[in-house]
Structure formats: C-alpha cells, structure tokens
C-alpha cells in the first residue's frame, strides 16, 4: 500500500510539474512565428532589463556574428530562465534570416523555424542564466539589413516578447534607423470592463441560446449555476459564461464529444480580476493560449465565488488564426471549470458538461440540454452495478443455501437450484463483459486518469471469465474425485473468487470517477447498504443452515 501511494504521488508530481513548467525544455517551435510563450498571461510592460549585443555592425554573405544576451548590470534580480533568439529581415520582420551555431550547447539548442534548420536558438532547461552567446551565420541570399529579436522569460508570468536587438547591414548597404531598445513588445492586449450586473437566463430559447447546469437554473439568483449563452449580433457572436469556480470557467467548441482539437475560451481568475483568453487543445493536454487578439468587448465580474465573463468574436476570422473555428457551423459545446494558480489553469475539477447534440452557433436560439456523464459510462456503471450487487448475489445464495431445499426438483434435466444459479451467473458474466468494453469505446483506449479502478476492473473481468470455465470442467456429482482436488479446485477456488467479487471494491472506487458524476456522499451510502444487506442475508442464511435459527418453522 505504501509503495502504491508513493507511485501515485510521483505520478501526480510529474503531471503537476509538466503543467507548471510547460516548455522548460526549450522545444518552443510552436512560438517561432510570434515568439510568444504559451504562459496564459500577458508579457511584462516594464523596460527589459537585458542587453543584446552583436560583435559586428556589418557583414558579407557567409560571415559569422557573435550575438550576446546578458543581464543589465543594474538589475537586482540577476537571472533569466528561458529565451528565444531569431534573426529577421529588418525590412520585413516576418521573414526569418540565416542560421545559428552554438557556443554553449549545455544551456542552448538549435530550433527549426519556418522550415529552416538552426534558424533559432532557445534554452535547454529552466536553470538560472545571466548570459548566453550564439553565432549567427549570414546566408548567401541575405537581405540588406538584419535585426535580432529576443524573447526572454524570467518566470511563468514575467517575460518579455520580441525585444528588438541590434540591426546589422551588408557591407555597402545603408543601415536603417536603429530601433529603441526594449520598445517593442509583441503581444497585444485588450481593454476589459467590469460587468455592472449578473447574467440572467431570461431570453434563453428566445433571444439567445443557453446551456445550463443544473437544467433550467438562473445565474442571476443561483450561485451554483453553470451558464453559457450565445447570440449572433451582425458579423459577431456574443458569448456569456458564468459558474462557481476557484480558478477558471471555460467552454469549448468541438466537432465531437471527445476532448481534443477543440476551440477553447477561458475566463481565468487572477487575484481580483479576470483574464479572458482564446486557446486550443490538440488532445487531452493543457490548453495552448492563442497569441492572436481575436476577442472584442471583453467584460467580467467576480461575486460570491462566481466567475462571469462576456466577449464578442467575429464569425469568420482571417486564415492566420489557426485552430479557430468559424461560428456559422454546428458544434458540440463543452463547459468546464477548475483551479488556477498565478493565472495558470489546472485540470478541470469535474467532468465537463457536454451538450446533448450539436448546436448551431448562429442558428435560431434554443434552450440546450447537456450532461456531465457520457451515456456509455452510464451504461458501464449500470451493468456493473446490476451484475455485482444483484445477479451474482442471488446466484451465490441460490447455490449455497437452496441446494439442500430443492434436492429433487428438476428443470430441463437439471436441478432447479443449479439451473437458476447457472442462469444468474451467466447473466453476470455477460453484463460484466459488455460493461468492461464500454469505457474503452468511450475513451478510445486506456484511461490514465482513473486511478487503480481500471486495473481492478481487469482483474474482475478475468475472474468473471474464469468462473464459468472452472464450472465447465467440474465433474459430475457421481464422479469420484480425490478429496484434496475437489476441495482446493472446485470448492475454494470457485467460491472464493465469487466472494472476492462480492466485496465490490472496484465498484466502490468506480462510483467516484468523474465521468459518472454521481452525487456524493449518498451514492456511497446506497452502495454500502447493498453490500451490508448481502452480508447480513448471507449471515442469516448461514446460521439457519447450521440449525441455529429455524426459519418458517
């Protein structure tokens, strides 16, 4: 048990570390274009405390120029962690120019940007650094002037984007005007306002489409209401999102009911304000925040633990806005909420609310329905619950206690107790088999977030299949078998496996899975009652069988 707890702790630690440090390994090709870290926050507007120096001001094709990034000597916090260095055409800063060589491969590495090997340099870890040097090699087709741009991160929420470095020119070319150091910060920001009043469900299905949980709730007077509304306004769509959460509320547009390749929008609480971000997820991963400013009319509100935000978005966006869906299509809607720390989101606390069917975002208003529990997982839970708290219990009692009471009665050539026992246990195996397959169909494979439940489920499935196999090889009652074989194999092994199932440990763990979304704690109480009922019934019948408790006499 201790070893298992240690393994779980290490797993959680690794997951949390991956979430917090994100791209600490420096493989930041995803940021090659806009040079913006995926840090769920805006870059610092303070003057960059760094020096960027080139050892030459002029070059010829094939020349090498040493570029140095270092801390400004007057800066008290004397380190940085991450960096990204690129060389751009000074006349067109969207064009990456030339390639780099490494001087310190222990702290720097080459990246492939714009399909050019070695066209950028980044960090290899989040260790503290005070200086990094690289060599830039001028290409044969170099433009007349080249400018070095640098993104530097000191921490998750403290970073500077596209700091303009020195401009170098080809021999004989007139140098362009120098850019003021630290004057260009790449990411755009949008002014937000504070909502004067709460959202309301008035107009749902008439003026706007709504998705709510609990069904029919009103965010204006119910602080437990998770609420999403949207309505078309000319060439825009207006979204309203509300819900109780410690860190963030979010919704996503999806082509299916699976998480992955979705258009996501997050309202993240940051102390006493709310940051509203567009993002996307490529799988069951942390959302990647978009560097493009696509949201308009941003407003937010914090009250009684409820996060509310609203914004407008164009129905159609320019092609450069990758992973953004056009809003004139039909999508499944996801609503989720969870914790956030220093503006960084963690995995949602509960199973997301998923709309029952696709909704037309710009279509006629409708009052949508949804569920936190997928239908396949509901069937999985129902089949397993019926099998291991009903049919198996009745089958065991039938074989253990009714055998002597119905010694001569027969059905289809077999004794009554045996026919009923076989029927009930066959139903148990079939229900278990179907229930076992359903989660794999839903997840599309093995679930890494379900704890020990799926492992115990595999054990249950194996033992459930073994039982009828052992029963098939059990000899006839009049066949003489060595006593030790009869006791060990056909009595204890067959029955002890069934007793293990009766403990329903796996079901106790399963009812707390997010995908089932069962109300606690009464769901645990109901299952405990069923187990106690079976144990008491078994005890009473055992006492009666031994003659200590006459029943019906």
UniProtKB/TrEMBL annotation:
GO terms for cellular component: membrane. It comes from Sinocyclocheilus anshuiensis. Residues 7-184 form the Reelin domain. Residues 224-338 form the DOMON domain. It comes from the Eukaryota. This is Putative ferric-chelate reductase 1. Pfam families: DOMON (PF03351), Reeler (PF02014). Keywords: Electron transport, Glycoprotein, Iron, Membrane, Signal, Transmembrane, Transmembrane helix, Transport. The chain crosses the membrane at residues 381-402, 423-442, 454-476, 522-541. Gene3D superfamilies: 1.20.120.1770, Reeler domain. The lineage of its organism: Eukaryota, Metazoa, Chordata, Craniata, Vertebrata. Its main location: membrane. Residues 1-22 form the signal peptide. InterPro entries: Cyt_b561/ferric_Rdtase_TM, DOMON_domain, Ferric-chelate_Red/DefProt, Reeler_dom, Reeler_sf. Residues 342-550 form the Cytochrome b561 domain. Belongs to the FRRS1 family. Its cofactor is heme b. It is found in: Membrane. The keyword Kinase does not apply. It is a multi-pass membrane protein. The keyword Cell division does not apply.
